[in-house]
Amino acid sequence: MRELMGIINLDRERDGLNELTYYRCGAAVPFAGRYRLIDFIMSSMMHAGIQDIAIFVRRKYRSLMDHLGEGRPWDMNRKRGGLFILPPDWNDETDMSAGELRHINNNLDFFERGAASHIVHAGSQHLSTVDLNAVHAYHLEKKADVTLVYTRVPSPRPEHRFCYRLDVDEDGSVADIHYEQRHDCIYMEMFVMEKSLFLELAEHCIAHGGKHFFRDALMKNRHKLRIAAYEYKGYHAVINSLESYYRTSMNLLNPQTYDSLFGKRTVHTKIKYEVPAKYLDTADVSNALVANGCWIEGEVKNSILFRGVQVKRGASIHNSIIMQKCVIGENVRLENVILDKDVIISRDHQLQGDYRKPFVIAKDVSI
Question: Whole-structure pTM over 0.85, yes or no?
């Protein structure tokens, strides 16, 4: 949609994924056998017809750049517009901006060159299949200054602790924004607003020493702005810790949960050509997501295997997540375990975590 341009802001996302983010930012963490967390918001923007996307990054973004490339899987490889990965510029000594507002101030040309009249601003930690065109239409219908996207979570989990809550009036207006834990209206860190107003508020914040757009531009001015709330009712998960990552991943082994995330709209990701998974005569696989290129001789139950995983004869994998090109040796026992990419577990080892606290090994480790 030419009326919308996208901003994916990774600057202030919580880094609670520990070993999985030693070498990458959270948005680049592998998920569901073949995706990365950023693929979901990228795909939502693609389905909305957005042709200009800026990604605000600050640290550990090499893996993200490798994954996104020029944006071809999301139709972002364009001669005009397309995908822009924008770290903050630290070289201008006269720059008064700070925090995430520095991204906006140092990349004004991205906004000025874009033909869209409105921006959609989002992060990568809230997984959803939100229809951004519907959010934009609702925003215009309400004649709002900004429209916040929220969802109802009747039983909040630990990962919701740091999510803003919204008080929403009967007419769909936001009355208050806060952290009250018992509240069930979870702000999904996604909003739509007119580009000119967005830049005006950002400029005002910078001039007054602000650092964070949502807190300093929207929360502090919530009584001056017309703030609407769009309720999203589809699949939703927050991934900002190892525990939430593990639980969300394991829930996908339920076909209904998997279909609610992947069954409505295609989620696009970087294409990698692999041979089909091969199951030998000794393989015993049930209730598992198994990606292309896997070689399985052992037992795999209630687990997720990414591309190119080798499971040797006699090995047993239960309730675990095994990422790309890991090698599980003969007679190895794994239960409630997360292995990052390129981990090698030699024969006869046993690793076991707890469903509430999985055992995690960072990438490129050999045991």
Answer: yes
